[in-house]
Amino acid sequence: MFPWNYIGKGGEAKVYRKGDLAYKYYHLFKLNERLSLDEVQKLEKIMTKRILLPQDTLYTILGKFKGYTTQYVKDLGLLHFMMLPTDLVIDEFNLLKEDNYILSQEQIVISDLMPRSYQICNHSFNYGLYFIDPGKFYRDTQLSSDEVFLMNQSKIDDFLYFRVLSSYANQEIGRYYYDYAKLYQIKQEVCYKGDSLMDFIASDIKEDNLSEYVKRKIL
Q1: How far, in Å, CA of 196 to CA of 187, rounded?
Q2: Alpha helices in 57-142 (DSSP H)
Q3: What share of the chain is helix, strand, coil (3-state, %, to 5)?
Q4: What per-residue confidence (pLDDT) applies to 195?
Q5: How far is CA 185 from CA 38, 192, 212, 217, in A?
Q6: Is the pLDDT of residue 148 over 70?
Q7: pLDDT at 88
Q8: Among 65, 70, 67, 129, which Cα is nearest to 100's?
Q9: With 0-12 CB in 10 A as exposed, 13-18 as middle and 19+ as buried, what is 16?
Q10: 61, 71, 105, 109: which sits with the fewest CB atoms below 10 Å from its CB?
Q11: Integer Cα distance of 83 and 2 in angstroms
Q12: For residue 89, is pLDDT > 70?
């Protein structure tokens, strides 16, 4: 890796990009919990499309495990996602649900979709929604596949509510220019119907894109 390949860092590793791959190279000293060699090798065998997992294991020239690669997805920004055609957004929701099903069958719990710092993005918007950092995913054999599926669904729903719908309302409309109670009502309706937020939006949206949908719901 060269300095011009460097694209950022987090608590676990520095990240470099070469072509279509992101290289997560662990820090010398362990600052946060991170995937072990065994965990990386198990995740490499699982095929997903939007909840990205490790693809290859990285070693030093001395053969010491130092990280892994994932698919690199350039972030085109929240507004880009909000303006996508509704049919494409619903297709993306279905891909996320398929990925969740695949992971739940392996009892893989997703985590850290929303870091506390807004400067750290573990997601990318690029003609869809990708979760790009599996560093804190873990297997919980004490849970059933159905339980894992519901846990993961709840975390994806929270991301969509806080980092998509709410963030768009705050950034593009302005927090003083819309009715927060109407935004929160979306969450209440989802709970009342027992749906996931993705399923609720898919059945409720009549607009050409998510941007217009959010405006109808909160203005």
Answers
A1: 10
A2: 78-82, 86-105
A3: 45, 15, 40
A4: 87
A5: 43, 10, 17, 9
A6: yes
A7: 97
A8: 129
A9: buried
A10: 61
A11: 36
A12: yes
Residues β-bridged to residue 59: 65
Q: Nearest-5° angle of CA 125, CA 171, CA 154?
A: 55
Closest CA to 68 of 30, 13, 142, 119: 13
| CA atoms of 189 and 33, how far apart (whole Å) | 36
In Å, how far are 38, 49, 196 from 151, measured between CA atoms?
23, 19, 11
Q: Which residues contact 111 (CB under 8 A, 6 or more apart)?
A: 136, 137, 138, 155
Mean pLDDT of the chain: 93
pLDDT at 175: 75
Q: What is the DSSP letter of 108?
A: E
Q: Which has the closest alpha carbon to 156: 200, 193, 192?
A: 200
- CA nearest to 86, candidates 4, 206, 216: 206
Helices vs strands, H then E, count in the chain: 8, 9
On whether the pTM is more than 0.85, the answer is yes
Query: Average pLDDT of 34-59?
Result: 96
**Tokens in use for 4?**
């011009």
What is the number of other CB atoms lying within 10 angstroms of the CB of residue 27?
16
pLDDT at 182 over 80: yes
Of 12-16, 81-85, 127-131, the range with the lowest mean pLDDT is 12-16
CA distance 8 to 181: 37
